[in-house]
Every structure is written in C-alpha cells, then in structure tokens.
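Progress report, Aim 2. The chain analyzed during this reporting quarter is listed below.
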Amino acid sequence: MEYYLPTTLKLVNTYREFDGLPVKGENVTTAMTEIERTMDTIIVAFEKLLDDLFQDTAFDVSADISVLEAMFAREGYKESDF
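Predicted structure tokens for the chain:
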C-alpha cells in the first residue's frame, strides 16, 4: 500500500494536470491514454486490497456468530431450525 496509493495519486494528479492543458501534444495524449487504460487495473487491485484488509475481520465475525449461536443452542435460547 505504501507504493500503490502514492503512485496512483501521482497518476491521477498528472492526468488532471494534462487534462487542463489548452494544447495537448503527442506525449501528453499518449500519457493520458496510458493512465486511462491503467485505471481499470487500479480499481480492481484496490478492490482486492480492500477486501484483503477486511478478511481477518470478516473471519472473526463469522467465528463469533458461530460461537454465539452454539452457546444459545446449548442454553436452550435458540429457536429450532425451520
């Protein structure tokens, strides 16, 4: 994450800068096209990074629910399954 976020911000800021230019030469146009193509990859990668970030929390939630339901069932507080 220490590399991905700063690099992504740099690309987005560069794109904004280039987009504001009154005249865009070949180098600027090529760079903008490359950034546009890369954004799809960046979006998918950040979605996966975010999902990975919450993986342990999601596992903990599932484990807590399983234990809670088992304790309710053992104590007779859980309704029978339909």
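Residues 63 and 74 are 16 Å apart (CA to CA). Residues 4-75 form one domain. These observations will guide the mutagenesis work planned for the next reporting period.
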